[in-house]
Amino acid sequence: MCALVFGGTLGGTLVFQSGEARADAPAAELHLGYEAPAGCPTRSDFLAALSPRIQASWVEGADTRSFDVRIRREGNAFVGRLVIGEPDQPPNTREIRGATCKAVTMSLVVFVAIALDPATAPRAEEPEVKPQEPAEPPPSPLPPPAPRTRPRKTRASPPRPPPVIWTWSSGVDAVYLRAPEPSWGARVHIELMRSHELDRIAPALRLSWGWADFSTRPEQAGKVSFRLKTARIEAGARAMFGPVRLGAFLGFDGGTMTGVAADLPRFEEIREPWRAWTGSVRAGVSVAPWLALELSGTLVMPFERPRFELQEPVRSAYKAPAVLFEGTAGIVAVARFQ
């Protein structure tokens, strides 16, 4: 499943200007390396956003520094790194993380502008001026010794825990159920997951409702149609590996199974309660910050195996197996909030 993170950006909402940087723009004189994923602002966009924030006099002269900008994607966020290189000096590195590539790029523009501003450069060391020593005053009587006091112990404040992130998802799945007759249907679900920013495994709760249809053809009865309608509650955990999310869940399935023998002269409809344990494994991949695709496999184990019989003469129309297999494929919408 994929997830969406809401967060603030430095300096509010800023808009990049498209197009190539002008040759006479101050930023065009910089030794600037730039690399960013597809969909991010280009190097020309970076220079176009930097030029209004600097003066031409800042980049003229013997400034030999180089600026290397690198942006990469990490999960649903972006990480930007600025390395300022200068001959015979260790590199100066700054890094920032943000929810969007545009916000990270704009922050790096501000970092470069601050580095170029002469007002922020370290001042040259001024020669030390020794003040004149005043004439020695006459010796004064020694004050009485101060009473001894124990230093006050200050408690270090505990580190702030990382913020809790809630992930809400909902989706619809196409269902294949082997009952053992092949049956087809659909299922809708909602899911809530609680995690911290650096967690790899997080607990989750899932609710769903769905149905599946299949049919049998017992002797002297024609076609008998069946529909299984159930609501399901599941608890489990998900493991997150970048855009890929794996999950394992245990749950309870409750509902009804209805059989209809419409081909008999005397129309018969039979309804039986359905209760079962479920065990599921799921795998999803994020295709966008708010959208994911998911596959699942589920074993369904009924408490009691419903059995359907027809009368006159008595004959069996269907008996549920001890274990049913359910497979799903679906699409999921995802939202993340703190």
TrEMBL record:
Q: Where is this region: Disordered?
A: 122-164
Q: From which domain of life does this come?
A: Bacteria
Q: Where is the composition biased (Basic and acidic residues)?
A: 123-133
Pro residues composition bias: which ranges? 134-148
- State the protein's name: Uncharacterized protein
- Could you tell me which species this protein originates from? Labilithrix luteola
